[in-house]
Amino acid sequence: MEVNSLTTTASTSDRTTKALQELKDTAGQVVGSLFYGTLLQQMRESNLKGDYGHGGRGEEAFAGQLHGMLAEKIGKSDNNPLGQAIYESMKRQQTNINRGQAVEKDS
Asked: Does the reported pTM lie above 0.85?
């Protein structure tokens, strides 16, 4: 009986850890694409350009793809305070939902 309960607890813990990691990744993707992607797009479309350091037509053609990849990487980075704040909020909400479901099952 003890072995089964330990195995169940371990597998539940693994599932919870995996679900939280997926939640963190998803929050990072959303922040990256919606916030940082929009920020980089506005920067790219601005008229604030200097005389030097532009890649010409190649930069114009592929800057959108580069900025999309940069936004995704920034969103998933550990140094992303906005993504971290959204993740923590969603984690608290999910924890409260799980507690409510556990209480309903016990009743």
From this structure: no
Q: Is the pLDDT of residue 89 over 70?
A: yes
The tokens of 100 are what? Answer: 């409510």
- pLDDT digits 0-9 by tens, 66-85: 899 999 898 888 888 898 99
Contact 80, 34 (CB under 8 A): no
Query: Do residues 27 and 90 lie in contact, with contact meaning Cβ atoms separated by under 8 Å?
Result: yes
Number of domains in the chain: 1
Residue % of the chain over a pLDDT of 70: 78
CB 86 within 8 A of CB 28: no
- Residue-number span of the structural domain to which 59 is assigned: 2-106
What does the DSSP assignment read for the chain?
A: -HHHHHHHHHHHHHHHHHHHHHHHHHHHHHHIIIIIHHHHHHHHHSS---SS---HHHHHHHHHHHHHHHHHHHHHSTT-HHHHHHHHHHHHHHHHHHHHHHHHHH-
Contact between residue 35 and residue 80 where contact means Cβ atoms under 8 Å apart? no
